[in-house]
Amino acid sequence: MDGKRSCSLCGGAMMIMMMMMMISHMTSALEVPLDLPQPPTITNQSPKDYIIDPRENINIFCEAKGKPHPSFSWTRNGTHFDVEKDPKVVMMPGTGNLVIDISGEKAEVYEGVYQCIARNEHGSAVSNNIVIRQSRSPLWSKEKNEPITVQRGTSLILQCRPPAGLPPPIIFWMDNNFQRLPQNSRVSQALNGDLYFSNVIMEDTRNDYICYARFPHTQTIQQKQPITVKVLDIEAMNDTVLAAFLNGSDFWGDSPSGERVPSFLHPPGMESTTMVLKGDTLELECIADGLPTPNISWTKVNGELPSGRFSFYSFQKTLKIKEVTEADGGDYRCIAKNRMGSSQHTITVVVRAAPFWISAPQNLILAPKETGNLTCDVDGNPKPTITWSVNGNPIESSHNDPSRKVSDGVITLSDVQTGSSAVYQCNASNDYGYLLANAFVSVLAEPPRVLTSLNHEYSVISNSRALLDCASFGSPLPKITWFKDSQSILNSDLYHIHKNGTLEINVAQPQNSGKYTCIASNNLGNKENHVHLQVKEPTRIIRQPEYKEVQRNSIAVFECKVKHDPTLIPSMIWLKDNGELPDDPRFEVGSDSLTIHDVTEDDEGTYTCIRNTTLDQDSASATLTVVEQPDPPTDLELTDQRERSVRLTWTPGDEHNSPIKLFLIQYEDSLHEPGVWLNMTEVSGTSTTAQLELSPYVYYSFRVLALNGVGLSESSDPSRQYRTNPAKPDVNPSDVEVSGTSPDTMTISWRELSGLESNGPGLQYKVSWRMKDAEQWTTVTLANVSQHVVTGTPTFTLYEVTVQAVNDYGEGPRPEVVLGYSGENSPTVAPENVKVSVQSGTEAEVHWEAVPLSSVRGRLKGYKVTYQKMRSLHKQDYDRENPQVLIFSGEETVGRLPDLHPYSHYRLNIRAFNGHGDGPSSTDQQFQTPEGVPGPPTNVNIRNLNLDSLLVEWTPPLEDNGHLTGYLLKYQPINTTEEAGLLKEVLLPANETSYTLDKLTHSTHYKFFLNAMTETGSGPAVTKEAFTEVDEAMTNRQAEIATQGWFIGLMCAIALLILVLLIVCFIKRNKGGKYPVKEKEDAHQDPEIQPMKEDDGTFGEYSDTEDHKPLKGSRTPSNGTVKKDDSDDSLVDYGEGGDGQFNEDGSFIGQYSGKKEKDTAEGNESSEAPSPVNAMNSFV
């Protein structure tokens, strides 16, 4: 992964480099091969402004090329610099590079303006004026800084004023511990290094405000003497204390100290002007005084800030615009604003421009008698002045050349002659700088040559631009023509031939791949070159990384799968925020993915996948957002304090990329429930304040929690305590109920008020009651209880009850009246006229008359019917069952008794009941249930008596349910597949408990069904299965036959006979069933008929012509013959007729028969029935 990280910045660089290469293909200056005579060309030189380090040697560069190789000389401050006379100066061999040894010398001696001249017999080229200056880092002047005393709230400026250095130093403020002083919107450093305070606070008091200056060229740091600042709150001090503080210090007391509208400390006033050069960076600064601290904003008057080129620094106080253009000139307005008001300052920006090239002069190659132009096209503000030189001398002082004409920025050379080569210099200057360019004119007569290497391979991506070089040289300049596959290429929508001979294919496609030929030609000859182009498929990311929103400590996976040309192998680079991935093992780069383990907040950002090949790249980006629970709110403040309400405000914490949905406000009542926090209310996530309704006599503390999509934050720190004054109760106890627990009492209960509802000390409950419609109330006052028992009440009497809250400050609101009854007593009357109607052997219906309501003495809940089986009518037993009770609710007077026993004697009674208990029982009623069907017989068993008889035995049912009238026995045989035979029935008397079945079939499976019967019908059947005995004698006889010798011999003889028949058929088959081979050979001496080979695997006969006809649906070889299979049998031989037919699907039509008929003309062989031998032959 580290290897990939190291290249993480090369993706964009590769694209820029490719673009630059394309531009150079089309715009490269004319290069003269170095084997041809040519004037000098400067190839390397030091910068115009060269600041040297006095501790190191001075290296001044000047390198050039030419034919012959140029010699070098220097001027210093406009006069010849004799290098050889100064032992400290050495010119490096083959170049004009100077090395000046300043050890033991002062560097100031060699300061000045240097210029290099490179010359040969064809001309002279000159370098820029190189200004050599020594870097300087002067010491700070000794000074004593008096302590500064300032009133709290006023503005303050601490001046740095470092010594002038070369280059200017970098300024920063630190304390005695070398820690940078904190800066913010209130305290910030200006561009000139001064430290500005928009307003001072008490915490600004300190004695170590130190300004440092770092000189970058010498890497030295110098510091100013520490400055002491004392901040006073004069309003809180008396005159004596104030005088002591002011002793021996400067007092900044003129500026206002209270809240005020902003005003500008820098730049002062309402307007100012600044100048900037085109291409430089513009820095505008506004620093304001004010309390509260002002906020700064920027606008451009009559325009917009330049998109993508501006940024803000120093807490919006500095506006920076890079790469300034003329359009950036105009008025810029900075606005300082606080809650007291606003002020504004307008800065007018004037854009000037040092000279810049529109078209620099280019080397000019001319053949004798040709004409050419040197063009020096520049611009600037103000307009630059252009001067020309030739071979380093002003053109005005050079010899008069009638072929040369100078017109401002253009030199025209006409009808040039051999030997008139020279180097021309164009110098363009204005108040802000100069430009110097060398361009030579070389007069040559040279046939064409192609400089691009032969058979060079070019590779481009499909749908991109292809540039095929044909760099050439010749004088006159060669004309370039291009061919592809012998076809001439002309300028068109697809092709464009550039001035330098480069062939451009605007949109290359795979069909454009191939061999290209360029021909350079002039009047002195032709030169041909071949290049090859391959157009490849583009690299495309087919599965891009997607936006991820993950929680902290989880895993984030970005995919990046690519499709590419198979001949190109793409590499993968991952960037984070356009920089390298962190060097952290949590970042795992796979072949097609990036996995981030244990995600943290620092991992947030934009992740870019770049898939690079040597020709192209594709990239895709996705953002990772880390979400987590919000931070708790802070800065809880209580305002707008009233008796029953207060306003709570807070500052939200960091929402951690998941918007806050709501704020939950909780409270603690430290008076009544200390340490218990309860939810009070919720407000939307966009609110930072809430009006809270309060209760009297509560010691409130509040806290706030924030909820986002991840979860609930920790709680904020509690607010300060807020106590409400006591008051009389606002509410009465709820859930008031009246209940009777005994016949002469009544219980009144309620829910007590909470401490929050008490509203004051001394909480009590005023409980009142009276009979319904009575006039006099009975009242008691109670505390710390939730019920009261009233005794001596009449049974089940309606009462009116109220419960009112009272405390030391008064009574609560008028209570609601609640109705309820006093205690109940048991009913006094039993139900009468009880009648039972028997419905069946298992069900009966009972009726009764309701008891009078006056006898209930409470709320009638219903009736209880108690019934009990006394005995069975059949068995005459007296084993009573336990009584059963059925409850019929409400005022029901009829009920059904289910699940009774048939043919039984029952007893029944009924009683009313209420909430207190049961009343007296009614008189017992007797009833009987009729007979029912009996239960199943028990203990059924079946036994074998002999081969054809079975004995069935059983015992009577456990439940007769009446008088048994007999038994029904059914039986039937079943086979192994459980198919049933004929079902037979036998009726048996009630006193029978066994039965013998005779004349059954031996070794047979039987199924039996046995039912008991009463007069009512048959009961459920019992099913059994049994087998009759096996006849062992017959089985033994069969076994004896199988082991007899005569039986075994008979079976062997039959098997032998079958084997002999198979052998005979096989032999006859091999002898042939058509024509003997010998007869066929004697009758037809056909030379094409080859004798049979013993080892060819075919049979020894010939088939007739008809046998050679292919079957319908078969395919005949192209030579007209039919290849014989291992068997000569035709499928026709097995058909009923002579014609064997096939269906369309190739299946054979016709039945196989045991005989085959043939015409006598074909032979008198006997036909054969199909045999196993014939069947076997088909496999031979």
Name the helicity range: under 10%
Mean pLDDT: 85
Biggest sheet statistics:
6 strands, mixed
Count the strands? 89
Distance between the termini: 71 Å
Which spans of ≥5 residues are poorly predicted at pLDDT below 50? Answer: 1-27, 1073-1180
Class derived from helix and strand content: mainly beta
* Percent of residues in β-strands: 35-45%
Give the helix tally.
8
Protein name: Neural cell adhesion molecule L1
Keywords: Cell adhesion, Cell membrane, Cell projection, Developmental protein, Differentiation, Disulfide bond, Glycoprotein, Immunoglobulin domain, Membrane, Neurogenesis, Phosphoprotein, Repeat, Signal, Transmembrane, Transmembrane helix
InterPro entries: FN3_dom, FN3_sf, Ig-like_dom, Ig-like_dom_sf, Ig-like_fold, Ig_I-set, Ig_sub, Ig_sub2
Organism: Danio rerio (Zebrafish)
